From TrEMBL:
Protein name: GNAT family N-acetyltransferase
HTH lysR-type domain residues: 61-85
SMART domains in the cross-refs: HTH_MARR (SM00347)
Keywords: Transferase
Organism: Pelagibaculum spongiae
UniProt cross-references to Pfam families, sorted A to Z: Acetyltransf_1, MarR
Location of the N-acetyltransferase domain: 182-347
Segments forming a coiled coil: none
Amino acid sequence: MDWIRTLESLSLGSRLKRLSDQLMQDVADIYKQQGLDLNPTCFPLLQLLVKQSDNNCMIGVSEAAKQLGVTQPAISRMVGKLEKDGWLQRQKDPQDDRRQLLVATEKTCQQLPQFEPVWAAIRQQLDQLMQQQQLPLLESINEFEDQLASVGSLKSLVLQQLQSELSQSVSIASEKLPASEIEVINWDPQFRDDFCRLNRQWLKKYFPKRNNCYENSLDQKQLEHPESYYLAKGGYIWFARYQQKIIGCLAMYPHSLGKNEAEKVRGMELSKMAVDESLQGLGVGRKLVINALDKARELAVSDVFLETASQLKAAIILYQNTGFTIANHPDGESRFNGADVYMALKL
């Protein structure tokens, strides 16, 4: 069984690449057996140069890339190979010293006729193979390329679809999650498992190594012993509840800033904010953060800070939108592996 064929359209690029590699290797072997020295991947550019030479004109790299419909790096690779093997040379544009022109060499003019019968045979055999097909291959490829060009790229199509699906899912979720019905409630021992569950979702997703409960793991202490780690130190833990289901959580507790005892400032640290994965992006996290900042102001706390990671982009945007700014870590580094962003807020 040809596994790649079972993937159908999802493997289109891979199948075309496989077919291209097979044809390129066959042509390379043909050249070798006929005593001809040319890299098959450079054939389109060489033909373009010959056409330009016939018209007594040269061509620049950018123009060549445009006419062949490939990137400049791809053209540069072809130019490097052809120049190395003596098929072309570069010359400065007499009207612009910054621009290099490509021109076929004497070797090209002398040896190209030797390729003509080989190319004629290759063309004949490929044409015969394509004539036996039910659908015309070249016309189908032309049509597919034109369709792709008309919409921009496969990338733009897929990203638009994913964005549309995301917007639709958020819209549907919003209809099921009225902001006015989201409660922020204080710690209750019956929700201890929810505090651990919600945080393990994102820890497992973004930091699989930190998700393991090592004996001295700071995460383990915070998640499995929240009363002693947060509440006993004068901290707080809040939950977001919707229709009697816990969908988010956030902790805040007093913490010292800086290593130097004489310069230490007491502040509040936000910690272990988590929202159920299926309900993220709907304002639950923002409601928890605003609630925590209101409590900090009530306590006359002037400094609130947190540690997060650069890959948690949505969380960073949330914190920035509530007033936090990225700052240098007062201790020089985080206590958590993977945490590389320190954010602070002056109330």
